[in-house]
Design goal:
homodimer, about 220 residues, mainly alpha, about 75% helix, elongated
Chain lengths: ~220, ~220
């Protein structure tokens, strides 16, 4: 009686392991660099074993986007939503994004920052999914800004769409600098940039981590 | 007498045409997606004709970075440097970046935004060149902010490194949204974001283009 259930559960676990590996690999090789062959190698499986779960490269890419969305939701969005709505959620969202990078859950940084650039010029269902994710994430930031303004935690004349654009940009820049320089200093600086932009720092002085990053930047031109 | 000179000039022109095409192709296929074969196809040349100019894929990639640097310098940095040092240069630099995207000089948006994400995780001379470009560009923005602060065009407590990070982020976000949605509205919004951040807008009202972008975003969730 238990054999068919165990088999189905095994199949699901295998499929989960494949898409999880696909998300990781895509942050190094790109979404278009994924193949049944390199996934089979990475997982020490047969090609036919991987192929059984995905009918085509497009199916594999779409399943990879789904899994990347789940990871982003669990690591970035959900921790933020457990904070108080408004400014606290906004800060928590940015911090959770930087934490996600720092933990190196994925070896090549933010999956979505990478695929936006890689697949942005290639029309089709994969790009549509990526555009929907990007729009949804920007809308989430904007909604948090709106709540913070309504609650009087940000100035009345703050423009939610403008600030959402800026915060999204800080995340893009933080990811690029972190990945490129293999150094957590840009993440410390990014946390400081966010706090200063949101008026959360109570004094004009920079945190020690950001001062360190700054002196590195001055001596090594690393920024 | 003139034949050898013409031959050498022809060879230089051919090499220039190849690297120019390589920069364009890389914004669609990625720097790692470049090959002697797809360049030969794109230029309607023989593979051996292309191969004669580049001994290896790495040489081709490094030559492509050089050419991309020249294009960026001519389209973004030089126009900005012709403005008054300080705030005017800072604004001109951001606008020149958005103009560069809008002109579609390269089919896939900013070459450098793309290769940072693609090659950031692959150690070697190509990544080193990209990191040097990124550091140099951030340092240039920072220096313009410092001049603007010295000239009293930005508040005394403005932190040049922090603001340079933000402006760099706005450029990353503008490029990503422009490429992904094939729509110039994010560039109008980005110009407004920069002006607001630099305190250049004299009233709190948004320019018509940004208002348009905003109402689009509100109805289509496109931002």
């Amino acid at each position: 009686m238990s054999t068919p259930r165990r088999t189905r559960a095994d199949g699901e676990r295998t499929r989960e392991a494949i898409v999880r590996e696909a998300v990781c690999l895509a942050t190094i090789e790109g979404l278009d660099g994924l193949s049944i062959g390199n996934l089979a190698d990475a997982l020490d499986m047969s090609k036919s074993g991987v192929y059984a779960h995905f009918g085509s490269k497009r199916d594999l890419q779409l399943a990879t986007l789904d899994e990347a969305g789940r990871i982003f939701s669990a690591e970035v969005v959900e921790p933020a939503l457990s904070a108080e709505p408004g400014l606290a959620q906004l800060l928590a969202l940015c911090d959770a994004f930087f934490d996600h990078l720092l933990r190196r859950t994925l070896p090549g940084g933010c999956f979505w920052c990478g695929v936006v650039m890689e697949m942005g010029t290639r029309p089709g269902p994969v790009r549509e999914e990526i555009a929907a994710f990007q729009s949804g994430f920007t809308a989430l930031i904007q909604q948090m800004v709106e709540t913070a303004v309504e609650r009087g935690q940000l100035p009345d004349d703050e423009e939610p769409e403008t600030l959402a654009f800026e915060l999204n940009g800080i995340m893009f820049a933080a990811n690029a600098k972190f990945v490129l320089h293999e150094d957590p200093a840009p993440l410390d600086l990014a946390r400081h940039v966010v706090r200063r932009r949101l008026g959360v720092t109570t004094s004009a002085s920079r945190p020690a981590t950001a001062r360190r990053a700054r002196s590195r930047a001055q001596t090594t031109n690393h920024a």
